[in-house]
Amino acid sequence: MTTDEPNRADLGRDPDRVSGMFDQVAAGYDRTNTVMTFGNDALWRAATTRAVAPRRGERILDLAAGTASSSASFAASGADVVAADFSPGMLAEGRRRHGHLQNLTFVEADATDLPFADDEFDAVTMSYGLRNVQQPKKALAELYRVTKPGGRLVINEFSTPPGALFRAAYRFYNAQVLPRVARVAGTNAEAYDYLNESIRDWPDQRTLAAWIREAGWIDVAYRNLSFGIVALHRARKPE
Where on this chain does S-adenosyl-L-methionine bind (predicted)? Predict the structure, then answer.
């Protein structure tokens, strides 16, 4: 496959295909997200930053960081932030935009085999990336491993709106409107076909909360954002 051909990931979530897909949409990724979410992506990012509550002197891992928009928000607090992603194209775009920040570093990383030591981070977070991992439970266990005792977990992920009417409208938008928005924005529309499929296939809020508990996290809780389009999950590693 040449770099000019659209890279279409599927629910097999082959890491190379998913990574290649994100490489191809990196340049226009943030712009397309803003258009397709009607600006809600900025509100969700702000909510995630508040949940992580980064503080100066802390070490924070932002996994599936993409273009590092969220990482830059965490770094604004003075925390030492690692933006990690398995897409070199996304990381390159992140470096282009935010590479000037002295307390922000970039690492290419596999969520199921993180290149970090045990108990390294005060907080770990992952936004819209867990559902792209072949073994999400293994990724949650890896996040647990690299977090210090007492450290914080924040997962922001697309989820299942609890209201039946809104859920039906949302699924129609994802299936029929979202790929057209991607085409207008000039990005890989097939990538957003995969986005719709991955959201539809992803478990609901309670199931993800159960997975987090299974990985060993405690004080697990979540709250819905934008009527449950996304859910913000929080937890803590035992002391």
Answer: 67, 85, 110-111, 127
